[in-house]
Structures are given as C-alpha cells and as structure tokens.
Amino acid sequence: MTNEIVKKNEFVALRYTGSANGVMFDSNEEENIKKLHQDATAREVIVVVGKGMIVPGLDKALEEKEIGVRYEVSFVAREGFGERKRELVKTIPLKVFTEKQINPYPGLTLAIDNMTARIITVSGARVITDFNNPLASKSLHYSFMITRKVTDEQEKVRALFEVSFKFAPEFEIKDKITIKGPQILEMYVKAFSDMFKELVGKELAFELKNPPARDASAHEHDSAEHEHEHTH
Known about the structure:
The protein is an alpha+beta fold. The chain has helices at residues 30-36, 56-62, 94-98, 153-164, 185-200, 212-230; strands spanning 11-20, 23-27, 45-48, 70-75, 89-93, 109-112, 115-123, 126-130, 140-149, 170-173, 177-181, 204-208.
C-alpha cells in the first residue's frame, strides 16, 4: 500500500537533521538533538509546504514525498542560507560594546539589532564583526521524514503564529481568528492577516486584553484614591 503523498500548500509535521561538511548543525530528532544541546527536547516542526518557512532546498524537497518515509537531500548554498556577503562584515567602534558592558573577543557570537553577529578581530578601538549566517556559502545536507499531514485547525493556526509572530498568543477561532492581548499585537494582526486568510481561510481580528498585573495595579490605585477620599 502506497503512503499518502504531500502536496504544495499542505500543513505537515516534519522531523529532520541538517549537516554541513559532515558536521550536524540542527535537528529535532531524539537521537540527534541531545548531541547538540543536552537539555533540548525533540519536537516536530509544522510547516506549510512551499511557503518558505524553512530553507528553500529543504522546502522544495518536501513536495511529492510520502508520509513516513525517510529521505536524504543535498543542495548548494543558494538553496540554503545563501552566499557570504562582504557588506555584512562591518567595523563597529569598541565603545558600542563597552557601553553595553560587553567585552568583545574573536569568536564571540552575540545578537546585535536582532541579527546574529560573530566577532572576527578586535584591533584598538575597532571591532570587525561578521553578520553573515555561520552557514552562508556552505552546501547543506538534510535527512528528513514527514510524519503526518496536519488537519486540526487549532494546530495549524498555532504553527502559523509560531512562524510569523515567533510565539503563539492567546487566540479564539470562530468566523475569524481573534487574537487577545496588549495593543502592540494589533500591528501583527494587520501585517499577517492576509497570510492567515490564504493558508487557513480565516482573517485575523484583534481584541484588546490588558495583562492581569496591570489591572491589579489599577485596582490598587483606585482603592488608594477611595481611602484618601474617606480621610477628608
């Protein structure tokens, strides 16, 4: 009996292990993830096939594959994390680091302006910093298995939130997907509503919901004012 075939735009659960030059750099499979991070937990990732949620080479490889079958795929850098770019190697004044109480040294990796950067050299008051992805210009190899198609609406929506928002907010699904939370989330709703409409058939909506701690603080303030009125 032939297993089910995966098509473009379908939600699937994926297990994979990626390597470059024979060295593993990423995995969400139990037998490999502990080699990268001792305390990490293996968790399948949910993606929409053909929608760029993973590196292009792996994304393309998912189409027309069978559920539950192990596959191997290799591809060049342009289908992975791209080629190295000279303009992403920058000279930054040392004081930018020292003002943040960071002591830069060659090999140090840190986040700057939401980008991963690696210190190449420190020379006097200048720090040569590389913003290229560490896997840029490298050919990649992936071993992967699509474990199932994802059909549950809640699971689909949560997966899309984790990809687009980088976290899953409180939400409710009816005719629309209503996100509940602080005002800043309304910006995300406007930015990603069309994508949700395309992929799960429902638009995003927003409902303001202030954090409980803020409500409690306001209540304490009101109580204090009420007591103050009774003292006069």
